[in-house]
Specification:
Layout: H1 3-11, H2 15-19, E1 27-30, H3 38-49, E2 56-60, E3 78-82, H4 87-94, E4 99-100, H5 108-115, E5 121-126, E6 134-136, H6 144-150, E7 153-159, E8 166-167, E9 170-172, E10 178-182, H7 196-206, E11 214-217, H8 221-228, E12 237-243, H9 245-253, E13 268-273, H10 277-283, E14 289-291, H11 294-297, H12 300-303, E15 309-314, E16 317-319, E17 324-325, E18 328-329, E19 332-333, H13 340-349, E20 354-358, E21 362-363, E22 368-369, E23 371-372, E24 390-393, E25 396-399, H14 405-414, H15 418-430
Parallel strand pairs: 1-2, 1-5, 2-3, 3-4, 5-7, 7-10, 8-14, 11-12, 11-15, 12-13, 13-14, 15-20, 16-23, 20-24
Antiparallel strand pairs: 6-9, 16-17, 18-19, 21-22, 24-25
Helix pairs in contact: 5-6, 7-8, 8-9, 14-15
Length: about 425
């Protein structure tokens, strides 16, 4: 047993014992997504339910697993604050049970360093310790360094089913206050089959991607379709917020080599991962895959170092001015800004770069257009019109950059479903957008 193993054994406790380090009034935070420490959170919630804790706040950039901190009866005792909202927390925020901090994903590390006054507890679910005393936060390097440096104490849930990942996402045993152990399969992201419209949109975008381009693909059917349809390209690179299954396929078929990138040559870099068991196995102990803080990965100046950078993201609705909403349905909160604007800006700054915002043109079985004369009142503008480059629906692809307001409106109308175009043109003329 080396000195790191001795330190590990000294700090090893049950989840219930680890939860005793949390005090009333503490501000707690975990990294994005699958890094949320299930065993510790459940033990903290049990203490709160027994009346042992009050005023504890659980900050989660994105909670994909959900947890007891979302229970209405724990409000004021152990409650949830979201920075980007997934399905488990959406209803609670819409009903006013929980709250949300608006932000671009890239700014979160800086918020913890410079804006948030304190972080009492940083807790995370991590991979087993290596022989050098390091744990990795393999599913999200996004905020790890900032939270690790800010926190008064660090508590870990060591899950032996977590992959070990390289990069700037590590925690050393000497920094850890206490830890517990678990063995829990990782939540997988089940991607539904691609629709014909997903494939149609994906093909239009794939046709715009040149050999040697570097990619960021968002989440959802359309970005997945783009990934599937790029397999005949050569020497692609990956510098992406989220690592996904379609990217594993591109790496395995040889379309992605990462050899044309100016930085991290030969390596895939990301700040977040969520996918299948196959993807997690691919990441495990892979020296060609690295996790880095979101303040670095999503930094437009870093993105722009890659010539021919391609960003692909989706949205909820677009108006005839070219404004993009990707995070609310009117006044109803849905998700968050995430990294969309960061990558749109980075692609705009890249020599030969292209930023794509894609969506299906209708919803509710074709009865509602997602292209509006103006955004639904109360909708949040995620990407301003001045930043939008390409818009894509199943009805076509247009490049708005450099076009007049009138030209843009006409081009956007051409992307709408045919049954809505006459009404959109009428409204555009009323607003003097079409001349």
């Amino acid at each position: 047993m080396n000195k790191f193993q001795e330190m590990y054994q000294a700090k090893r406790k049950s989840p219930e014992e680890v939860a005793m380090y949390v005090k009333s009034g503490d501000v707690c935070a975990c990294p994005t997504g699958l890094e949320e420490p299930t065993a510790i959170c459940e033990a903290v919630a049990a203490r709160a339910m027994r009346g042992e804790l009050t005023g504890v706040v659980h900050h989660a950039t994105l909670s994909v697993k959900g947890g007891p901190f979302m229970k209405p009866e724990l409000k004021g005792k152990y409650e949830y604050v979201s920075w980007f909202t997934g399905a488990p927390g959406r209803k609670g925020i819409q009903e006013g049970i929980h709250t949300y901090i608006p932000c671009n994903y890239s700014t979160i590390p800086g918020y913890w360093r410079d804006v948030q006054p304190r972080l009492n507890v940083f807790y995370a679910e991590v991979s087993p310790m290596d022989k050098h005393g390091y744990f990795s936060c393999p599913m999200a390097g996004a905020e790890v360094v900032a939270m690790r440096e800010k926190a008064d104490i660090i508590l870990l849930d060591v899950n032996d089913q977590m992959p070990r990942v390289m990069g700037d996402c590590l925690i050393h045993i000497s920094q850890v206050t206490a830890l517990c152990e678990s063995s829990r399969p990782l939540l997988v992201l089940n991607n539904p089959p691609l629709s014909d419209d997903d494939k149609k949109i994906g093909q239009m975008i794939a046709d715009e991607v040149c050999d040697g381009a570097t990619l960021q693909l968002g989440i959802g059917g359309i970005p997945n379709a783009v990934g599937v349809l790029l397999k005949d390209k050569k020497d692609l690179g990956l510098h992406t917020e989220m690592f996904t299954d379609s990217m594993v396929d591109l790496l395995e078929c040889g379309a992605v080599t990462n050899m044309k990138k100016p930085i991290h040559v030969g390596k895939t870099v990301a700040t977040l991962a969520w996918g299948s068991k196959k993807m997690y196995d691919f990441m495990d102990d892979n020296p060609a895959f690295e996790m880095y803080p979101v303040s670095y990965i999503n930094n437009p100046a870093v993105i722009a170092q890659h010539d021919n950078f391609v960003s692909v993201n989706s949205c909820i609705e677009v108006d005839l001015f070219g404004q993009v909403c990707s995070e609310s349905i009117g006044t109803k909160h849905y998700s968050g800004s995430g990294g969309q604007l960061d990558f749109v800006r980075g692609a705009n700054m890249s020599k030969g770069g292209k930023g794509f915002i894609a969506m299906l043109s209708t919803t509710k079985g074709g009865t509602i257009s997602k292209i509006k004369p103006i955004l639904t009142p109360g909708s949040i503008v995620t990407t301003p019109r001045n930043e939008v480059d390409f818009l894509v629906t199943e009805n076509g692809i247009v490049r708005l950059k450099g076009q007049t307001a009138s030209q843009r409106a006409k081009m956007i109308i051409s992307l709408a479903a045919p049954q809505f175009r006459e009404e959109l043109e009428f409204e555009a003329k009323k607003m003097n957008l079409i001349i």
